[in-house]
Amino acid sequence: MDRTVVAYVIYLLVSVGLTIWVARTLSRNGRIFLADVLHGNEKLADAVNHLLVVGFYLVNLGFVALYLSGDETITDTRGVFEALSTKLGVVLLVLGVMHLANVYVLNRIRRRGAMEREQVPPVPPQGWAAPSAQA
Prior knowledge:
Distance between the termini: 98 Å
Oligomer: single chain
Helix content: over 70%
Largest sheet: none
Shape: rod-shaped
Number of strands: 0
Number of helices: 3
Low-confidence stretches: none
Structural class: mainly alpha
């Protein structure tokens, strides 16, 4: 079998496996965070979590597929390792950037929700107080 094809197969197996692992980890741990952001609405948190995971898969697997093609033919074992290290390194960086972007956006939503909760008085007003006369 051609070494280039071997490198492609290894690249696909590792990068798809990493994408699935990161998506499952984000989904499992992100659900709790989303429930807090969405004020305990579990159904909405599950729906948003699922949508985020689907988007994560689409973007990352699309990138993996686009980045599959190589510029050169691999002629030796060293070339296989060099090609794999470059491709997998870039995939890992993209996964990390996607993760940080998700956390940043969710943190912004959480902060906005916390600010809105702080602006609402803890109890409704119970009446009016007469202004005090200042001498």
